[in-house]
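REQUEST ID: PR-0412
SUBMITTED BY: lab tech R.K.
PRIORITY: routine
TASK: structure prediction, single protein chain
INPUT:
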Amino acid sequence: MSLNWREIEAVLAEIPLAGSQIQQIRQPDFSSLILELYRPEGRYSLYISLSQNATRIHRLTQKIETTVPLQRFAQLLRSRLKNARITSAAQIGSERIIKLEMTRSQADMVLWIRLWNNAANILLTDPEGKIIDAYFRRPGRGEISGGTFSPDLAVRNGSGKEYAIRDFPGAGDLNSRIAAYYSSTERTTETGNLKQRLEKKLAQMEAALRIAMEAAQDRTGGEQEIERYRQTGNLIMSNIHTVSPGQRRLTVEDFYRGNETVSIELDPALTPEKNAERYYNKARKLERKLNLAREEIESTERELADVLAKLDALKTEEDTGALRRMLKSVDNRAKKVETGEKDRLPGMAFQSGGFTILVGRTARENDELLRDHVRGNDYWLHSRDTPGAYVFVKSIKGKSIPLEVLLDAGNLALHYSKARSSGRCDLYYTQVKYLRRVKNGKPGLVIPTQEKNLSIEHEESRLRRLLEST
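STATUS: complete
OUTPUT:
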């Protein structure tokens, strides 16, 4: 419920507005304003709320968080009223209208505060009532720049009606008790609204993540097919001397299956080596899909755990600030999903022996990979004493990284560095958990610890194979 005119009268009687200097103007949200005031006895803040069913004015007794950028009217007040002195403060009759007269550099202005429940507003005018601007511009009432404001009490039914000053609970003067009452009421309401919005959004996210998890799991389980493609390539290479030009099928003994006879389809337009490579490529392509599905499952599991943790924390969280931050985080994540940003992998991805190698070619890509796409047990490689890309090798649980995979990653680090023209470079490598971010440093800038050295020379065939795997 909004303050009645009797309560406003009593509130103003406790605040020495006349003679106060305006030091700052703040706007916490879209329906309130704070005047930070100074008197020789000390500083205090005047809070004005234009919220329906909670229109009021009182001295502020606790900090209010700012949740919106400074809006047009507040910016105007800062330019016109900062350091102005309030020369008089008066309530207009038995109305919920307050008139603050003020002066700055010999320029006089009036701030009108109307606390009507359904038509609350704050207007800045010159002494003759010409409107400079209004908190809410209402053309129908003439409350726009250039209009004229005059508190016409005749249009208010019930003006002068007797009201009682409610017994607000708590300790202290009326201002303190009113501030505490509305703060508690609005905090409870806001907390409930925030929780309701968060619960709905998090439930939607949970359902979407579970669907994504099932879809990714459906794309796994092709290890046997991958291995069979490799075996077929090996069988062609082992019997290459028996293949004639233009041959469409090759019948051989399969030493992987107890020497049973198998027939292998060939492309008559390709050489035997190219036919074998065709099967190797099928294996690599399927392996890439499998690794991407596994990475998606791992990423989705982390996101799902985070959503479930937020839902659990929601049961006991009562801090509105924490709830707002949580809602902002959830909204940002949903926005990324809508724009496809979440699925966009920064940099480049390569496949090597079942492992995924990620390459960040710019500071932004390096930073994104470090923040969102690699974990502590993954490996990081970088050219020593030479500018170059960050190269990461994604770890696989229960498997150590083979030397061939490390050499592949090293060739990519050389290829995407300033040392490329020399054909060789020294690298250092370590696990991501041993990288330390530089405080106040550029995005992606890290200092490695527990690093090891690796000397790399350019290998054309190795690099070509990697570049063809993307």
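NOTES: Residues 188 and 318 are 9 Å apart (CA to CA).
REVIEWED BY: pending
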